[in-house]
Amino acid sequence: MNALLAQVLEAHGGLARWKSHDKLSAHLSQGGILWPMKGKGGMLDEVDVTIDLHRQWTSHAPFGAPDRRTAVTPQRAAVETLDGTVVEALDNPRAAFDGFGLETPWNDLHLAYFVGYAMWNYLTLPFAFAEPGFQFAELSGWEENGETWRRLQVTYPDAIATHSRVQTFYFGADAKLRRHDYDVDINGGTPAVHYFSDYTTVDEIALPTRHMIYVRNPDGSHNAEPLVVSIVVSDIRFT
Length: 239
Fold this sequence. Notes:
With 239 residues, the protein is mostly beta strands. The protein contains four helices and 13 strands.
């Protein structure tokens, strides 16, 4: 295992503790310009999410109506009733974004797929990196907020639905995640910078509860506006 990654996993609670659980559930309070830009303003402002920790599966509820939820994997996005009856579904959902840009509107299945794969990625950090197929390279240090952050470039395996195959993660002196850079391939390759803060500890696992996402400038900086996505995570539970 990469030496920096080993330190990072331990700082977030350790792989053994993570593997002792099967699912994570939480409440999300979300904002930012992305949702109204996509024609989905208000739809996911207050929502519950459940993920499987060891395979890429995510469900958001409610989704558009009190009796609706999603079920999303890399191969399929579905909207269901609460008893599991499928309302609508899309196989190979990533192909449905071909030609999309930042301002292209989404339908409900586009939204379900995007938030499904994205939240699974965010909530499994950094523990998903211990799974097979990831590749790592430590980059030079980065100065920000009066700190020097270590950087890990991560290449994702093809089996994981994610924003882009190559992404960069920044870690503070405590080895906790501070920042995440990626390009949103299904959104015209929009360059993003994602900040993590306000850590909490649940069953000895350290998790950030505040996520702030901006457009990344070519020099790695960002402007305070627009705020593309904000996510506040609460009521975190492991099962």
